[in-house]
Known about the structure:
nine-stranded mixed β-barrel, 6 helices, disordered N terminus
Amino acid sequence: MPMQIRTSRHALILSVLVCGRLLAAPATADKDPVNAPPTVQDWQALAKLPDWSGVWTPVISDQIAQEKTNRPPWKPQITTQIDHMNAEEDAGRPFPIIDHCFPTGMPSWMLITHNAFEILFTPGRVTILGEGDGNRLRRIYTDGRPHPADPDPSFHGHSIGHWEKDTLVVDTVALLPQVYLAVSEAVGVPNNGDMHIVERLQLQGPDTLVDDLEITAKKVLSKPWRTTRKYYRQRAQKYDIVEGVCEQGSYSEAVDKNGNSIFAPIKFHNGVPVGSESK
């Protein structure tokens, strides 16, 4: 009989705890915004948006032209750094802005990318999928949410957007201070914090996407920088997005002592794989 009493007490305590948690859960959840499931109307509304399907590749000639004719308004101390980087690049010693396996980040991705990307529309979000940096992506929320009050900084930041007719207006904040503001793959500086980016993306003709950017970076720029980048739509299947893994080029295919297929580190000497140097 005492054992039955103890068992009953344990069961009662357990039921009270479980019930308490169940009752408390909705009250906690009610305080947080939720992602509402999309409706049929939400999916149908996507058909009214402009056609951005296919794979987009940057217009490299446009990047080069912009670099020469529309330099960012660097602060004087930053200009000194930029001039040195340009000189090093001219001397054959380019600074490896994108060769350290960190994501290129915003806004450099849109400014200096040489890789393809594609754009997906889903209810409440535009997603940009890239080819480099381990198949990087950008999430642009279009469901009306604001930026978080205390966002976690990241390489691509937090982006919210809205449509003005056929133009997608994107506001991006919460970027890591270490993320580069770059004008080429060898010239640029970390933004050092508080960078803010506003983009206006729209079609210019059937197969050209234009991104008008306004970049505010008070630690490195003397005033906001306005610039434009263009991307061309490639519809041929050979341009489909491929997997890009930054470190994979530092390894070769090998077999371990157990017969398993592995990646083995390549030994380098002065940046050249050992054994591949010219005789």
